[in-house]
Every structure is written in C-alpha cells, then in structure tokens.
Amino acid sequence: MKAIRRFSVRPVLPEPLRPLHRLARNLRWSWHPETRELFESVDPEGWRESGGDPVRLLGAVPVSRLADLAEDRSFLRRLTAAADDLHDYLTGPRWYQGRVAAEDRAGPGPGASAASGASGVPSGASVPSAPPGAPAPSAPPGPSAPSGLPAAIAYFSPEFGITAALPQYSGGLGILAGDHLKAASDLGVPLMGVGLLYRHGYFRQSLSREGWQQEHYPVLDPNELPLTQLSEADGRPVRIPLTLPGGRPLHARVWHAQVGRVPLLLLDSDVEENGHGERDVTDRLYGGGSEHRLLQEMLLGIGGVRAVRAYCRLTGHPDPEVFHTNEGHAGFQGLERIRELIADGADFGAAHEAVRAGTVFTTHTPVPAGIDRFDRELVARHFGDDAELPGIEVERVLALGMETYPGGEPNLFNMAVMGLRLAQRANGVSTLHGRVSREMFAGLWPGFDPEEVPITSITNGVHAPTWTAPEVTRLGARQFGHLPDAELWELRRTLRKRLVAEARQRLYDSWRQRGAGTAELGWIDGVLDPDVLTIGFARRVPSYKRLTLMLRDPERLMELLLHPERPIQIVVAGKAHPADDGGKRLVQELVRFADDPRVRHRLVFLPDYGMGMAQQLYPGCDIWLNNPLRPLEACGTSGMKAALNGCLNLSVLDGWWDEWYDPDFGWAIPTADGDAIDETRRDDLEATALYDLLERRIAPRFYDRGPDGLPGRWIDMVRRTLTTLGPKVLAGRMVREYVERLYAPAARSHRALDPVAAAELATWKSRIRDAWPGVAVDHVEAHLTPPAPAGAAELGSTLSLRVRVRLAGLAPADVEVQAVAGRVDDTDRITDATHVPLKPTTDPDPEGRHLYEGPLALDRTGPFGYTIRILPTHHLLASAPELGLTALPGDSMTEAAGVLMR
C-alpha cells in the first residue's frame, strides 16, 4: 500500500548526545576521519547500511542504543573532543585570517580604501546573532574593507560534489566545486557556495543483461539530507521569486548546507506555490530541453543572487565583494547584480562596469560544443517587461551573450561569452587549457594575438583529506621519504587488496541486478588478484575521453591481461549521459568484453560510478589511465586523486599532466597530432603506443623484483609521486592562487568602482568606442644606430622610432602607443613579443596628428621584426586588451617595417 504523503521523523537525542546533531549537520565529517569513526562507533552495522551518512544513521539508530551511549563515558569523551575540535576549526584563525592580519599591518593597498563602499565587518568583531529559523554563521565574518582581500566571495556552480550523502553532482565540474569549497574552508577563505538542489540529483546507473546502461532517478527528500531550510525571522520559509514569460511566477526555497566554515545555498523549485512545470525546474541535473535548461540557469544565476542577499540579511554574513562563476551556467548572476544597481539609480553602463570589476569567470570547456547555447528568441522571451529583469532592455541582455564575432553564430546566445563579457577576470583550469581557451575565444578581442587574450589559467587541484586513503593520510607526505620500501609496498598491497574486495562485491551486486542467480556467480570470488598490476579508468563517458581505446586491438589486450608472468588487470567505471546513445554504446562494448569468461577475472566494469566508489578506486590502483583526445581534457583531476595515494599516472599529455608530467611520476602516451591523420588512424596509433608502454615498460618495472622480493624502481616512483607530485595537485594550492591572483584584485577593483567611478569609466569607454574608428597609425619612421645595410642590424643596435598617429579627438592620456617587437616566423608573425611604450613629444601638428617617439633595443639575434599599435588605456582597466580595441598600421605602410636579419 502506497503512502499518500511522506515526511521525516527525526530522533530526539538524549541531552549528552546533542552535539551529534551539529557534527552530523556540518559536512566536515565527510573529510574528517575522527568524526566519521565516532559515528561508525554509534552503530557499525547501521553506519554501513546508511552508506556512511550520519543523518541517516541517527534517524535509524535504536533508542536503546542511544540510551546506552548517553551513559558511556568513553564515547562521551570522544564526542566532546570531536565537538571541541569542530568548534576550534570553525572559529580559529587560519591561512586567510593570517593574510588579512599581515596586510592590515602593512597598510591598505591600492583601491582598498574603507570609504570605497566595501561591505564587511572588521576582523575579530562579534558575529551578529541569527534570527530564529536562520542558520547562524559558523565562522567569523570576513576581513574588513581596509584589507586587500575580499570580505566574502560567492561561488556559483550548477553542481557540487561534497559527499555521496548529498548527491548533487555528475562529474568533474561538481567534484571540483566541492573540493574548492572544502579547501576554502580549510584555509579560512570566506567563500559562499550557491547552486541548485535537484530532486533526483544525477541518475543511478545499472546494466541490463545485455550490458546496456539503464538510468534510475531516486527521489531525494531534502529533510533526509544534511540540509536546513532557510527561514525568515518569524519562521516562514524564505521564498525566492522569479518571473517567467507572461508574468507567470516561479518560486524557490533555499536549503543551507554547512561545508566546514563555508555555507552552501541550494535553490529548490519543488514548492506548492508553483505549477507543475515550475516545480520541475530543479527536477534533475542536466535534464530536459533548451527551455528547461535556460530556466535552471536563470534560477541559479538570478535566484542565486537573491538567495545570497536573503542569507546575508538573515545571518549578518558579509555581502560578497567578489562573485565567481564556475562555468557559464550561472552567468545570469551578473545581470541580476546589474538590475540591483539600476534599481539604486545607476544607468546600465555604470552598473555593468561595477559588476564586471568584482566578477571572476572560470571556463572548463575546451570545445564550443560543450558550452550551453540558446536560441536568441528563447532568451528574448524570458526577459523584458512581462518576464524577468524588466528594468533592463532585452537587447542589452542579448548583446552580452550573442556570438557577434568572426566565426560565431549570430543567432545563438552563448553562456560562456556572456560570462566573459560580465567578468573582468577569467581563467582556464590548466596551463594548456588556458592556451586553448585564449584561442577559442580570441574573436571577442579582435586585433589581438591569442596569447594576449585576457584569460589566464589556474590549474585545478583536489582536496587531499577527501581523496586520500586513511592509511596514507596517517603517514603524511613527510614520512614517505623515510618509509622503508617494504612498508611502502605493503601499504600499496593493502590498498589493492581492499579494492579487490570492493570490486568483487560491486560486481556481484551488478550481476544480481542483471538477473543472474547466485549459483552462476561463483566465478566472482576469483575476480582480480591483489598481487597483479592494477589499472584504473573511471570517468564520464563522452566520446573524447575514449573509454574503449583499450579495446582497439582486443587480442593484444587479452594477451596483456593473461600474460603468464606479467599480467595486468583493469577496473573500469563510468556513466554516459542519459541522452548520449553513443556513449551508452561505448559502455556496452566495454561491458561485453568484460563479460567474456576468458578475461572477466582480469577486467571488470563497475556500474554506478560516484564518490563512494572513487574513494576506494583511486588508492587501490597502481596505474591511473587517461587517454582523451588532446587537447580536449581541460584538466582531468582523477589522476591527481590517484597520485595522492601513490598511484602512478599513464596519460596522454593533456590537461594537468601536460604541465606536470615527469618520468619520475609515470608515463606519457604519445599522441598522433596533425590534420593529416584521420580519426581511425589516430586511434590505432595511440592504442598501439598504449599497448607498447604497458608491455615493454610498465609491466616489466612492476614485476622486476630485487633480491628482497620488492620492485625497487617502482617503489621509487611511488615515493616520488607522493612526496613531489602530491603537494602540487592540492586544492589548497589552487584556492590560494585564486585568492592571490583573482579574488584579491577583483575585490580591489570592486571597491575602486564606486558609483561615481563606475559612471566615469562607462562614459570613458563609450567615448573611446565612438572615436576608435578614426584612430590610426599614420606614419612610421625608423633610424638605426649604428647604421647598417638594409634588412640587417648588429646585436645591441638601437632603432629610434618616430610615429605619427591620429587620435580622432582623444587625448594622449586615453591611449598608449606601443612598439611590439620580437622574433618573426616565416610569415612575419611576431612571436615572444616585447611591448615598448612610446612617448608623446609635442602638441598635435596642423593635421591633428600626434608625434610619439622612443628607442627599440635590438637585443636578440635571428629574424626580428616590429610593428606599432595603439591601445586604449585607463587605470581602472584590468588589462590592455579589455575593450578589444587596437589600431595597427595599414597594409600599405611598409617603410621601416622590414625584417632585420643577423
């Protein structure tokens, strides 16, 4: 009989056990071993059945057991210690607070005036008490305005992978966002997370008897998750309103999760006030068609800002000075902040400049097809007088996202393009991805070489306490340099053995779901071997990640798996998107190979890949395999998580491995690059290279044992991975880079652009754009000292430049005239450029031209060339190319522009 209504009955804990509630509700338990061990001791069997979820555990533990624990002095001492430790973690100063104190002692930096309108309260000030029903801040407020660091940062992402107990993630983007929040918490960075709460989360995966992926969407009850509903002072739930076309309302409630020191706000449209269609806006992650996706992104961006304002109003948390958009999905947050400023009296131009100053945009996508793009008319219909943001003209909204640049599709609204136009600072997520992004988005900055496009890079990192096996964590990185080989090898075998047991259980459960009977599954007891070289491959299954590259030559793979002396075994996991039949076919191809009785003890596919599986898989593997199509892997953090556990990487030189690969840490799979290589030939070549590495270099090294029975050279690589590579891949390093390179400069820009300064900057930009068509390099003269034959010069010579330019009514203070010089290639393109500012020398001549002069030192040998360009300049610009405007000499201006040879 089916219930007509469902609700949660929460346990009433005895008074001595009340601290368990706070420990369970703060997700720090997900990366704090001592707290997890405490919960496990409450009821070991219940802990396993709950999947390691303290909230579910406390909802199911017998009352009699709670009564016993309330009298157990040993348990109560451990509980007090855990509660005290959490309190110290939440309230004590950490890295960020030390940076704030150091900057305050040094004095305010540029643009950090307390009078600039920055929000926040001084460090050390008391935290305002929260109204009834609202969550109290768990950490001290952020730094005061005089510090160069922001008082608070709002971090928007469509998904967050914090813990398997809060399944609101699908893959790398969400896991990265979760690690970003956790690392920020550990460092004391005053971050706020903003996302959506999906009723079904991402799908659960199983397999049919034929190996076809099947999706299941279990309903998630927020009341059974580690969440608290945000409420007004009078106890009423907070409601976030949006307006849909035709004035139709969309309401959302706000759920609050506490991630250590970091609050995470999740918006949920499944409320009674909404119609059926509106209730389904947050039904599932990355589901539905274009309009459904657009509504999700409007709720995330626009509704997310409104949720942040409500949370800050109710708790006294400082308003964010910096807004960080993790991928384009949340780009509409910038429009909502523009609307707020317009409501306060600013015009659109000034509001746009003020919002850009405090916005950071991170792109994760190295291909245009991976970006959300909407039809122009669909977007137009959802904004304007009878829809959302009525104070902003629809054409202004559209102008932010339309692909109005060479190579773009002018009828499409591009969320990443809007993200870049609304952010003064942007970055990719590895050095290679930064370069790819600059090339991909170069059309937004016409006239500039890709290397000058203002998109930097910060390489992703991973949160070590989440992804490192407890045994590895207890040893600590410093001890690995001194740990005897035998102990390090025994540690690796222990982790491998645990993976084997986990894989057998998951494989058994999968085959039972596929319809197999117990009697036919005895073979599973012999699956995998804790003494065999173990390779892991687990990730989403888009085509570019090439799940089945290992199957390119099935016979050769079979030989590797069944080698009599040096066998390998492979554990594979991954989900294809529900709408991606091509990805599902790849899964089925892999599963069918793994079902072959000849190899099923050496290659297994484990369905329903998620955080819980990953935390067993990374430590237990000896090799982590990654073979994407280069350069389509923006970063690829799974190999980082493996490295933290002493697993060696075997990867194409893509993403993070391209910049940190070293033979001490693993192996690089050669790539067959070049337009002349077709797809089939490329995959054949790269698969062959993979087989060769496994057969000739990797397996021999693993099985090459010394007189002590240990693989000494392999252990050396494990040790170097743990001691040298491990510290590089940490999320703490990543978040510190964000703070120092992006958040702090954005906060200073935000403070500098008060309403008056923002209006002045907007007016200046408008004047520059209007005048720019008339700006030109009119004449260039060059005199070489000492003189030399035409086309040649001596190293150390100086080129004296005299340049006449037309400024079309602009003042010399509005522009910078530069000589751009460097080596040139066969097409006379300047590489490794040096930029030398030239100085104005006189008033305009009778024709209105300004004269600029300056020396250009010839400080390198070989083919050398130069050109002249004019750029807008203003002290509030973050970079010279910000406006995307430059003036270069015309094609006919060749005098003194030849190549200098030496």
Mean pLDDT: 91
For the secondary structure, the number of strands is 26
Strand content: 15-25%
What gap, in angstroms, lies between the N and C termini? Answer: 90 Å
Q: What global shape is seen?
A: globular
Features:
29 helices, disordered C terminus, alpha/beta, globular, 902 residues
Q: Please, could you describe this protein's structure?
A:
The chain is α/β, with parallel strands linked by helices and 902 residues long. It has 29 helices and 26 strands. A hairpin with a 2-residue loop joins strand 7 (248-259) and strand 8. The longest helix has 29 residues, at 485-513. The radius of gyration is 30 Å and the shape is globular. The chain starts with 18 loop residues before the first helix and ends in a 30-residue tail after the last strand.
Helix-strand layout with pairing:
Elements: H1 19-25, H2 33-42, H3 44-49, H4 54-60, H5 63-70, H6 73-91, H7 95-106, E1 153-156, H8 172-187, E2 191-196, E3 204-207, E4 213-216, E5 228-229, E6 240-244, E7 248-259, E8 262-268, H9 276-279, H10 290-315, E9 322-326, H11 332-343, H12 348-357, E10 359-362, E11 373-375, H13 376-381, H14 394-401, E12 412-414, H15 415-421, E13 425-428, H16 431-440, E14 456-457, H17 464-467, H18 470-475, H19 477-480, H20 485-513, E15 533-538, H21 554-561, E16 568-573, H22 581-594, E17 603-605, H23 611-620, E18 623-626, H24 638-643, E19 648-652, H25 655-660, E20 666-669, H26 679-703, H27 712-725, H28 731-752, H29 755-771, E21 776-785, E22 798-806, E23 815-824, E24 830-840, E25 849-857, E26 864-872
Parallel strand pairs: 1-2, 1-9, 2-8, 9-10, 10-13, 13-14, 15-16, 15-18, 16-17, 18-19, 19-20
Antiparallel strand pairs: 3-4, 5-7, 6-7, 7-8, 11-12, 21-22, 22-25, 23-24, 23-26, 24-25
